[in-house]
Fold this sequence. Notes:
Elements: E1 2-5, H1 11-17, H2 25-37, E2 40-45, E3 48-59, E4 62-70, H3 79-90, E5 96-101, H4 105-113, E6 117-122, E7 131-136
Amino acid sequence: MRIRPAVKDDHPALCAIDSVAADDLKRRADIADWIQQGCCHLIEIEGEAAAYGVLTRHFFGQAFIEMLMVGTSWRRRGLAGTLIAHFQSMSSGAKLFSSTNMSNRPMQDLLVKAGFRPSGYIDNLDENDPEIVFYSPPSRS
């Protein structure tokens, strides 16, 4: 297993593991933009893209995990947690944020397990499903 920045040639593989990209041209374009911006990282296992994540700085200038996606056949193997730990190490000494819908309990549990704390919520993004913002304090190492 290796984690590396995604490159343009990875776009088809990342779209293939993304559960939204098959039916959403905007998501496909977002993935291309994230790759171009250099903020998309992927986990590669035996030469195959298994998961990807996006770390941006668009959230009030703070590091923000914008996306985590694990391919269906690679789920339940700790890859999302591995990406979170990777982003935490990239953000060492700085605040790190992420968010998820209130209805997405597995992601909430994953963030808490990784040391994140709830930091507030945002109404009106998705109807009747507030977005919970999570915060990982800066590491002191």
